[in-house]
């Protein structure tokens, strides 16, 4: 099935694809990961979500769009111009920051570079590493064989060590969010910061917007089910009285 937001545009397309969908109450009872960060297609069907056709300008903001894309701070003009064909995936953050100034602009492209490198890894999986045959006769009997050991995983098994797999040092749990999600949040926050820091005309006035990146966790209990979701940050309005 194509992505939900590409095909569910109206009630008729929803009805064609929602024949086997569960209702939201059933989902709450059958799954523990019901926070919005863990939602999937089944939750969208349960909430009867219809996705409107994407546009380059939100209707809500159309009255506020400038007549021209020029006349802004040089940083905003550079952001609009993009990274000018530079191969970001081949550069590291310090190289990108030194090439794109001010720093706020450089951090946007550095965050994008991380996503581009992730795509390259997905498209070109690493080839299987060739194993060099070992020579047991050349090994020091007091040395421990570290072959195949992963950093942060269970301790290697050696003479006199416990063979139980339950003991380990370091972090072995699953990450709290997919890498792609974290990278997307980073790109979004860097972009919003750049726009707010250099796109607002009256930062010396009594009110302006800024970006909050401190995460906040919220919990809600419904019967025996506890819902938990993480607010990854967002826009805040600063008002000086």
Task: Give a quick summary of the entry.
This protein has helices at residues 4-7, 11-17, 24-30, 41-46, 74-81, 93-99, 103-123, 179-199, and strands at residues 207-212, 216-222, 225-231, 234-239.
The rounded Rg comes to: 25 Å
**Low-pLDDT sequence parts:** 125-134, 146-172
Given the helix and strand composition, which structural class is it? Answer: alpha+beta
Biggest sheet character: 2 strands, antiparallel
Q: Mean of the pLDDT scores? A: 76
How far do the termini sit from each other?
Answer: 53 Å
- Residues in helix, %: 25-40%
Strand order of the largest sheet: 1-4
- Our estimate of the beta-strand percent is 5-15%
> Using DSSP, what is the number of strands?
4
Count of DSSP H/I helices: 8
Query: What is the 3D shape?
Result: globular
Give, in order, the helices and strands: HHHHHHHHEEEE
Count of structural domains = 2
């Amino acid at each position: 099935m194509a992505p939900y937001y590409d095909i569910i545009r109206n009630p008729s397309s929803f009805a064609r694809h929602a024949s086997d969908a569960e209702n939201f109450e059933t989902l709450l009872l059958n799954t523990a990961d019901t926070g919005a960060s863990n939602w999937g297609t089944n939750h969208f069907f349960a909430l009867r979500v219809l996705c409107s056709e994407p546009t380059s300008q939100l209707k809500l903001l159309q009255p506020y769009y400038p007549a021209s894309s020029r006349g802004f701070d040089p940083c905003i003009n550079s952001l609009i111009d993009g990274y000018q064909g530079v191969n970001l995936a081949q550069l590291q953050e310090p190289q990108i920051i030194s090439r794109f100034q001010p720093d706020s602009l450089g951090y946007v492209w550095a965050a994008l570079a991380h996503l581009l490198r992730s795509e390259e890894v997905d498209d070109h999986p690493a080839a299987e590493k060739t194993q060099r045959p070992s020579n047991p006769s050349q090994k020091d009997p007091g040395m421990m064989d570290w072959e195949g050991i992963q950093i942060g995983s269970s301790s290697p098994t050696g003479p006199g060590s416990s063979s139980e797999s339950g003991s380990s040092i370091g972090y072995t749990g699953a990450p709290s969010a997919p890498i792609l999600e974290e990278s997307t949040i980073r790109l979004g926050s860097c972009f919003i910061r750049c726009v707010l820091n250099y796109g607002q005309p009256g930062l010396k006035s009594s009110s302006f917007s800024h970006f909050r990146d401190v995460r906040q966790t919220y919990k809600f209990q419904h019967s025996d089910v506890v819902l938990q979701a993480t607010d990854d940050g967002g826009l805040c309005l600063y008002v000086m009285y």
